Amino acid sequence: MARTKLPKGGSAALQELCRHGELTRRELQGLLEVSGPTITRVVAHLDELGLVRAAVVGEGSLGRPAAAISLSPDGLGVLAVSLDATSTTMALASLDGTPMKEIEVDVDASVAYDTAIDRLAEGARELLDTARTAFRAVAGVGISFGGAASFAEGRLTTPSGFPTWHGRALAADVRERIGLPTFIDNQPVGHIRAMRWYNDQAMDNRYLCFADWGIAGCSSTGDPRPDRGVSTGGFGHTGGRLSGEAQCWCGLYDCLNTRASLRGLHSWGVRQGIIPEGLHVLEIVTALEADPRGRKALENAAKELVFAGIDACRVLGIQGYILAGSLFEMSEVARTTANDFLEKNKRIVAGSFLPPNLAQRGSMLSAIAIAADGMVLEGRIETMPVHD
């Protein structure tokens, strides 16, 4: 593979094509707010790289043919990694999120860090073998991490459910092993990035709550730059105390993570004798919904997350609140409860759930978007040898 520089404005054009699908040259020009000659040059360069294709769709101004621009199916690939405390999935996909190959990798919070790097590198090489004949170029590797991580530094931070991995430069270590640009971010920020790449709604002034194995939150200011515009905080540790019933990995007791996360609900269910140890996420939700006490716990978790999010929006001066993560995607009880309370408080905050296209493949799309934002920062892609 060879490192190839993208044309100025090229990554922005690719992002608009991901967000809107097929666009005419004039539509793309308007979205990018550039001149006609500029958009012609950008499209020509991307076409030369095999990343986009143009098809005549009718007659344009002055009787000239109007061309529709779209992403090439075999143009730009991405290696995506969804890594959380209980499981890891890796995938090869096109930049628009279309999956080509997916594999499960034996990596979770119990696996030693060096062993995890070995297994991630092995999985990446397997996917890269497919990519060499499927795509003309690869943007890089994106890791959507189920814990605290810094996109700017490419390393894991604290606190998280991976205590033995803290401070490790995971992105750099994977990059060193496979030779591809690698980028990492935590899952909620990855979802904000995915909404920027795969949703045509404006992402300014929004707060996202991610309720999964853990609880996290982040706000979006609408700044489109990959290294700006997203702010994280200690949302999952809201309400934490120095003593109490259940201790979080942050060291505090009875914070949102212990009360409203799937990990916290699982621990509570085990203590109550409702569910056994060792269940996967969907099994946890199913077991809780089958028991009256479990359904009540899911309702309370949803209520707490809605009210905590409304408070965060008030403090930050944010007008939109988005609920995401497995709790709301898998539990009808939690989703219905949250929806009812969002409706009751709609005059305070405009609440919603993750768009369906992101909810269905949120973790993978967030990983793809992390790699795409890394590509924007570096301004380069990895091109493959010419293939038929």
Q: What fraction of residues sit in β-strands?
A: 15-25%
Sheet bearing the most strands, described? 7 strands, mixed
- Helix coverage percent: 40-55%
**Low-pLDDT sequence parts:** none
Q: Provide the structure class.
A: alpha+beta
The gross shape turns out to be globular
> What is the gyration radius calculated from CA atoms?
22 Å
Give the N-terminus to C-terminus distance in angstroms. Answer: 16 Å
Number of strands: 17
Helix segment count? 14
Mean residue pLDDT: 89
Give a description of the structure.
The two termini are 16 Å apart. Helices cover 43% and strands 23% of the residues. With 388 residues, the protein is of the alpha+beta class. The chain has 14 helices and 17 strands.
SSE topology sketch:
Blueprint (H helix, E strand, L loop, with lengths): L1 E4 L4 H11 L2 E2 H8 L3 H13 L3 E8 L5 E7 L4 E8 L4 E7 L4 E7 L7 H22 L2 E9 L3 E2 L4 E2 L13 H9 L3 E5 H12 L7 E6 L3 E6 L9 E3 L23 H5 L1 H11 L8 H9 L2 H25 L3 E5 L1 H5 L1 H13 L5 E4 L2 H5 L1 H17 L1 E4 L5
Parallel strand pairs: 5-8, 8-11, 12-15, 15-16
Antiparallel strand pairs: 1-17, 2-4, 3-4, 5-6, 6-7, 8-17, 9-10, 12-13, 13-14
Short description:
By secondary structure, the protein is of the alpha+beta class.
Give a quick set of tags describing it:
388 residues, alpha+beta, seven-stranded mixed sheet, 14 helices, globular
